[in-house]
Design a protein that fits this description.
five-stranded antiparallel beta sheet; 5 strands; 50s Ribosomal Protein L5, Chain: A; single chain
């Protein structure tokens, strides 16, 4: 009798457990709490209508960048530490005789943050950096541009914990622009407020006027 061939059954392949996808805590707060609160307040029919923060731009101007290259390099390094992303050097678009600047000369640096890097920066800004600012009394509610975007200035870069005071060349300020998909300033104000931004409260009279 022919020997029966034993067929070995292959063991089922073990399914690899997928590692949990990292998501910044501020992004979780937006998706879990902010969207539902905004939907109730503004009566959006769909969650996709709820405004969101699309990008954050940091801009630092340097008056002596044309003559002091070390100062420019130092500013780029500091902004890289603050944002976690390497900035680009901004150059003059035209000649300005009053400031003795020629077209194409470096005048500062800027960086634009989106997605995960943006939420991580905003989280550090809200919870750590802004409370360390000298005589901080909250951000102004008047700094919206009419189209749902918010601008404010930071006087000293040393409020960020990534910057070591002993290693800086000089104290520098920067401008922060927060771009949102909101159509009105009131929507943008409520969005940033729910995300935890320390915005000052609007006077009741002004809120009534905007609603009218």
């Amino acid at each position: 009798m022919a020997e029966e061939k034993k067929i070995k059954k292959k063991a089922p392949a073990k399914k690899k457990k997928k590692a949990p996808v990292y998501s910044p805590s501020l992004k979780k707060i937006y998706s879990e709490d902010v969207t539902s609160a905004m939907q109730k307040q503004f009566n959006y029919s769909n969650k996709m209508e709820v405004p969101r923060v699309t990008s954050v731009a940091l801009n630092m101007g340097l008056g002596d960048a044309k003559t002091n290259s070390k100062n420019l390099e130092s500013a780029v390094e500091e902004m890289t530490l603050i944002s976690g992303q390497k900035p680009i050097i901004t150059k003059s678009k035209k000649d300005i005789s009053n400031f003795k600047i020629r077209k194409g000369w470096p005048v500062g640096c800027k960086v634009t943050l989106r997605s995960t890097m943006m939420y991580e920066f905003l989280e550090r800004l809200i919870s750590v950096a802004l409370p360390r600012e000298r005589d901080f009394r909250g951000l102004s509610f008047k700094s919206f541009d009419g189209r749902g975007n918010y601008n404010f200035g930071i006087k000293e870069q040393i409020i960020f914990t990534e910057i070591e005071y002993d290693k800086i060349e000089s104290i520098r300020g920067m401008n922060v622009t927060i771009t949102t998909s909101a159509k009105t300033d009131d929507e943008a104000y409520q969005l940033l407020k729910l995300l935890g931004f320390p915005l000052r409260e609007k006077p009741v009279n002004q809120e009534v006027e905007e609603a009218a």
